[in-house]
From TrEMBL:
Keywords, in A-Z order: Signal, Transport
Residue ranges, annotated region (Disordered): 34-53
Transmembrane segments: none
Name of protein: ABC transporter substrate-binding protein
A Pfam family assignment: SBP_bac_1
Cross-referenced PROSITE patterns: PROKAR_LIPOPROTEIN
Naturally occurring in which organism (per UniProt): Streptomyces phaeoluteigriseus
Length: 459
């Protein structure tokens, strides 16, 4: 059984729309921010007005728990959203730090009789598993009303299992971005690439200037899957991408070989990766970002690939988004630039008036605008005021995402069963870590990917 077959059909990617989105990003992402545009926080602390404020029930005496894998600034910023919910309703909400794989974490909490009321699930496959295990509860009438008012059909559909709506995609991500140290590029005379070949030329130019081109967080398997997905989507095309996401073609397919061989042009050059493969495999995602923007014009690396949420980590440095830290769309490997999205959905586990009210709040612009102001966050909610975002770069990314409507490709590994696409030290995460360590073994990694995928998908 394919864990997300019911939702993949809704993820239509019209080639022209993807091109429009990539083009819009290419035109806008180099916008310079002012001194007040540092992404880690805004001077504003209240929400922006987006029509009438949402009416929520009084919940004095109600206690709720919300679980998510978020840490650091991302967790701190989300807690401010929860604080606003507490202020409006009188409820008391506790954030529960979760661990990957989150389905295993939930299983232990449920077995112990302490399930959280609401959980933020980062994979459509995890939503399906939670429903299959009879943990998840459908959204009620008020949450559905708010969701349908504020979200495109595509973002609604990826939170469905069968005909029932279970998830509210509170947080989205544009995962087709490469961030760079502007001073390093300026000193090297490097330019923003639009194609993979140009990216290789830019990397060599940066290397020749004395700075290592890339920072890769190999200690975390998920960024490696994102690298693969962008190369594969652009090179193999949307149809193949969907087939591989559903495991309708094998990971031993020639298209996978071509994508891995392409990746090896960067991963296989130890001088192109900060710390080499061994160093990268010990570098976690937050450090991969901060080391790119620490050290002035002599950082440990010039570029780091990942989504818009990188801004939260840039904010922990002295760099300012739009001036010191700039960004360009992931270069096209094939005919068009890739546009890969991801997200986190609020799912109710303990059905109650409080949990339903929180899901309703998270489906509203009111909640999203609080976190939007704090930076490092992107909402698929089409009624969020763009002015809520703290800088022009984030604002343009958000506007492009909303303008794309239903036309986007969702993160492939997030569509997979969690055993393959979402478990540290196993499945695709581990296999691509092994490939980063030895990028010459393309056939061996393909065979391992296929073996792990077949076991997880059951086909």
């Amino acid at each position: 059984m394919r864990s997300t077959s019911n939702t993949i059909r809704t993820r239509r990617t019209v080639k022209a729309a993807a091109t429009v989105l990539a083009g819009a990003l290419a035109l806008s992402l180099t916008a310079c921010g002012s001194d007040d545009d540092k992404s880690g926080g805004s001077q504003n602390t209240g929400t922006k007005a987006s029509g009438d404020a949402l009416t929520l029930p009084k919940l004095d005496g109600t206690t709720l728990e919300v679980a998510a894998v978020w840490t650091g600034p991302e967790q701190a910023n989300f807690k401010k959203v929860l604080a606003e919910f507490e202020k409006r309703t009188g409820a008391k909400v506790t954030f529960v730090p979760a661990q990957d794989p989150i389905i295993n974490f939930l299983g232990s909490k449920i077995a112990g009789g302490q399930p959280p009321d609401v959980v933020m699930l980062p994979q459509p496959g995890a939503i399906k598993q939670a429903v299959d295990k009879k943990w998840a509860k459908p959204l009620g009438a008020e949450a559905l009303k708010e969701l349908r008012k504020n979200y495109s059909q595509g973002w609604q559909d990826i939170g469905k299992v069968g005909a029932e709506q279970y998830g509210v995609y509170y947080k989205a991500a544009n995962k087709s971005l490469i961030w760079y140290n502007a001073k390093v590029f300026e000193n090297a005379g490097a330019t923003e690439p639009k194609t993979w070949d140009e990216l290789l030329t830019t990397a060599q130019t940066v290397y020749d200037s004395g700075v290592t081109p890339f920072s890769i967080p190999g200690a975390d398997g998920w960024p490696l899957t994102d690298w693969f997905e962008n190369v594969y989507l652009s090179q193999a095309g949307p149809e193949k991408y969907d087939q591989l996401a559903r495991h309708e073609i094998k990971w031993t397919d020639p298209s996978v070989k071509e994508a891995l061989t392409t990746l090896a042009q960067i991963w296989g050059k130890k001088d192109y990766v900060a710390g080499g493969a061994d160093g990268a495999l010990q570098t976690q995602f937050p450090n991969a970002v901060t080391q790119t923007f620490t050290g002035g014009d002599q950082p440990k690396a010039a570029m780091v690939y990942e989504g818009d949420f990188v801004q939260v980590n840039i904010a922990q440095t002295d760099a300012k988004v739009g001036t010191d830290a700039k960004v360009f769309p992931f270069p096209k490997v094939g005919d068009t630039a890739p546009v890969v999205s991801g997200g986190d959905a609020a799912v109710i586990l303990e059905d109650s008036a409080g949990a339903q009210a929180l899901a309703t709040f998270l489906a509203s612009p009111d909640a999203a605008e609080i976190q939007a102001e704090l930076g490092g966050y992107l909402s698929p909610n089409k009624n969020v005021d763009p002015a809520a975002y703290p800088n022009d770069v984030q604002r343009k990314i958000a506007e492009a995402l909303v303008a794309a409507g239903d036309d986007f490709r969702f993160d492939m590994s997030d569509q997979a069963p969690q055993a393959f696409g979402g478990t540290p030290g196993k499945g695709e995460w581990k296999d691509l870590q092994d490939f980063l360590k030895n990028p010459t073994d393309v056939a061996g990694i393909q065979a391992k990917l296929e073996s792990d995928a077949a076991a997880a998908y059951g086909n």
